[in-house]
Amino acid sequence: MSTTSAYxxxxxxxxxxxxxxxxxRGTLGTARMGMIWxxxxxxxxxxxxxxxxxxxxxxGTAIAMIVLGTLLGGSVLVLVGNMGTRTGLPTMSLTKGSFxxxxxxxxxxxxxVTLMGWSWVQAMLAGVTVNFLVEQxxxxxxxxxxxxxxxxxxxxxxxxxxTGIARVEPWLxxxxxxxxxxxxxxxxxxxxxxxxxxxxxDTEAGxxxxxxxxxxxxxxxxxxxxxxxxxxxxxxxxxxxIGSGVGYTLSTVLAMTLGATAIGYVVLxxxxxxxxxxxxxxxxxxAPLALVIFLSVxxxxxxxxxxxxxxxxxxxxxxxxxxxxxxxxxxTISILGSTWLALLDQFTAFLxxxxxxxxxxxxxxxxxxxxxxxxHYGRDILRGRxxxxxxxxxxxxxxxxxxxxGAGASLLLTYVVPSPIGATIxxxxxxxLLYLGWAAATGRIDRTKRAHxxxxxxxxxxxxHADR
Length: 468
Hints:
- By secondary structure, the chain is mainly alpha-helical.
- The protein has a single domain (27-451), classed as Hydantoin permease (Orthogonal Bundle).
- Helix content is 70%, strand content 0%.
- The protein has 19 helices and no strands.
- Helix 13 crosses helix 14 (278-285) and helix 17 runs antiparallel to helix 18.
- The longest helix has 34 residues, at 105-138.
- The radius of gyration is 22 Å and the shape is globular.
- It starts with a helix and ends in a 27-residue tail after the last helix.
């Protein structure tokens, strides 16, 4: 009986704290938001992404592409996140404004699959790292077991919802930053910056500056699927935009630069540059780097699992889909999937797919909210059917067609006709122009200049059977 009542108390608490369906009013300031985003991307996957570039391109060029790509991709993340602050809705709920109340199910499904893949990859990398240390100390080896244990801890943290994340993330960020500083000092005391710049390029690795830029932007896009989830926790738009902008930019540049520097350190010491393998750089830097990897997965994967749950709970108004049972079901799947270690060999392809799927989605969302709807979504976006966002049978067919066109163009520019300026920027511009052109041609651009209001401040409409 006590177990049942504890479950019910937690479930009720989460629903009362708006971890259920509908908008949430933020309470966090700039510093708190910055620390949450700082912890979010100080993660092993971002760090290991930096190991992909060196020595395929020069260390200095890699750093330049990391900074440029982070600024470009981060601007999309901040603007989508601001939609969450202004409305109180998570990212995938906001797709209802442009894709329709039912059309949004498509990006929601893609988002859940993508985030599930992220959670698996990060749990595996943490598990492989912990296994490496345990095997060195005891001889016992079971990367699958440690991957499962790492993800189990993540799911337990995610179950406590956004209030638990707000408490834990800033402290994890501080600890991770301290250990990263130690690793940078170790690397640059052994080899000066000039030594890293002088590392010979390996042209056979297949990397170019543009390819690296695309991957860095795709990393930002992969995080944008969660940007409104967390920026809706901000008390003001300024807190959300400044906090997420500074926190994301700083964390990504630091983590990827650390990865590029760590693999450069391995090369300078005569080792083999095996990209996206945490054991290679852990062997070079020891337990401090292993602790960075472990803590970063705890910080980031908690947000990823939370984001999956929020996407499903906010897909449609239903009293049957609540936070806690959804978290348990998706958490269980994430734990089971963390045993699929072969996914680590496909990480770059995984990033390409994320970019192809979500760059058009975010281009459509930004154009729809900021240009077509004049920065205003009404309470009809909370309905189950009917109203301003119903379109044709609940689906905005034009948005779906633009999405498919953009995704196809991205894959074409990546694999068939490589673009000299990469695939991400042309895909974003194409998708934005196509959607804006459709809106202008059909007379959908709102010129009424309606005053902005948070969804919780708009008058509530009476729920009918049709809304369920």
